[in-house]
Amino acid sequence: MNSFRYQAIGGSGAAVEGVIEAEDRKSAIQLLGQRGLFPSNLEVCFTNGAAKAGGPAKASGFSFGNRIGRKQVTAFTREISALLAAAIPIPQALDSLGEEEENPALRTVLLEIAGAVRKGESFSSALAQHPKNFGNLYVSMVRVGEEAGVLPKVMDDLAGLLEHEDEVRDEVKAAIAYPVFVLGFGFVTVAILLTVVLPRLFSMLQEMLTVLPLPTLILLRTSEALHHYWLLIFAALAGIVSGIVWYVRTPAGAQLWDVIKLRIPVMGGVVRSAALGRFARTLGTLVKSGVSLLPALKIVEHTIGNHVLAAQVALVAEETRGGDSLAAPLRKLAIFPRTVIQMIAAGEESGKLDEMLLKVAEIEERHMRARTKTLISLLAPVLILIVGGLVGFMVIAILLPIFKMSSALH
Fold it and tell me: Are 25 and 94 in contact (CB under 8 A)?
């Protein structure tokens, strides 16, 4: 248990000072809030019975650099939603989370947002100043919560949405980990054999045989090229990969890449289900939080993650602007299967569009998981066959001259 010396403003506006015991700063702020006190300053004065020395205690922990990850933003969202639900003022809640944050980059961002809110800016406007960490969807939901006076509830819905997206991403990463390991292990094995082991062996075979079999000769030339020009080959491959990455990041390249992803067999179904699940879950969460349908569609258009489907969502938004329901333009464009569109139409008729969209998201996410399992079940054997074929070719290329020498001796 720690002791904190606080300076706070009471409900009558009078300044109050004192000492409070709590597990950490967050708990201390919550306790003060329950007493109707709004702390303006909070310092550790005793920690586990020891006298304070050398200033306030600092949060301990290892920081992995200045990058702010998605899961750190998700954790922040869940924490601040809990603090706001406990009636803690936004600046105090941000100060508490910022000072306890172990990531220096996120700590700086949170304290900057707290300072902006103290100067009179809205929470959503302060978040909008950091678009790399808080995107259009995040800022829009916070703005709706502020305008409707239900910010704690909206933050809770937003935290749930981010947590679900993180969970889906983790499942996909776990599914592709084994194929990636197989491919990487095979690549490293073949590279070591071609650059280290085989050159020595082939030098011996060339001394013993004047004419080498064709598979052995192919492998010999490949090994020599990799052994002598590996740096040039590596630089060329790095340049090609960098060029492709640069092109994909351009508008035309991103458009082409999204088209290709949707047309790849099996993988296209995974990409489509993932994007449509995100569309339905994001739109359902926005509608549930009180965002009207047209602005919600505009937000989803920029967060769906696929340019081709985003263009279709833009067409849906234009149709909706004319007064049509959501189901009608979706039916025209055939974005969703017929049964899903019927569910959306039923949700509109019953006034429960948000609930039905979240159910649609669950359906599409189940399809995405099933298709991902199918893709992985096909990908792993294919990679094993490719690696096995390369190793098998190398074994044959090595054994052929040995068999030739053996037959010549007999």
Answer: no
